[in-house]
Amino acid sequence: MAPHPGFFVFEGLDGSGKSTLSRHVFDLLSRKGVPSICFAEPTKFETGLYLRKFLSGELELSGEEQIGAFLKDREVSLQRNILPALKEGKIVLLDRYMYSTAAYQSGPEFSAQEILERNRACGFPEPDLLFYLDLEPEQALVRLEGRKEAKERFESLGTLEKIRNAYESILPENTVRLDANLRPEELADLVEEKILLVRGKGR
User: Where, by residue number, does ATP bind (predicted)?
Assistant: First the structure.
């Protein structure tokens, strides 16, 4: 029987380098002829575009509406992106997943753990490994301020500190912590090694 291709998630604060790292890893795997694909959440489907309006400040949502919108987009992400790719035998690299929703949407209304449990109650699968790019909130803010794009609603020091603490409270046992200050190429090599090890075990 063919080994399980593997489902791997990249998490961390905005500015930690998740998107860059996931693309680097995809390039490494592709050059070795390993079937793989890279996705991100929110998706590029209608449900994800709706969320991006909220993230950019164009749309206001209550706490419950935010969580509902993320759950809806995640269902689309799984049904249209992740599960079909796994069925085709491809390694799936995902930039943000349910841990981001739990960390970013947590607050007075809902704890990070409560939001994570709501995701699990939907039957969303756990990744084989979660790669967490650890970065101090102050460093993340400096990186974000250096970007040319418009700021998103979560890009302030106090908010980033809250999000980092929330992450720390929910990261699962299969988390691989990475120093976000390492060179992207070095990080990609570390991640690729871990992924190929899991793939070789046929998990």
Answer: 12-19
